[in-house]
Design a protein that fits this description.
This protein has about 150 residues and is mostly helical. The chain is built from five helices and no strands. It is elongated.
Amino acid sequence: MSEPARELLGCAAALLDQGRAVDRLSRMVTTAALGGLVFYPVVAMRPLWTPLGFTGLVALAGLVEMYFALRVAFDQALFNRIAGAREAPDFAVMDEALMRLGLMPASKAGRPLAARVAGASRLLQLQILAFAVQVLLAFVGACTAALG
């Protein structure tokens, strides 16, 4: 493998590793939302459906973020493994393994390295977007509860 390709993989893995910090924050928000879903109806005299609905949406956005976090972490681990290998990667063999595991459609097999890195970066962007939606829903839900 060429040195620029190895460097690209290493940089991409380092970038994808940032998804762990996003996931840690999201898990805290998701845990709070799930706790709210369980305890709010128990402690409230007359539970309001609007805050409960926003809490459910916050938890759902957290589950979406968690899905993307798993995908990002998987790609990060693959990129680290490939970047650290002594010999050049055989993407055809890796693609076959990913397809057999149901992790990659056949239409994405044979992509160049740059396309693989771009796809993994898109997953990180979707993870960050899911977290941003989660935080926005929590904020709007809190404002709605405070006004209502």
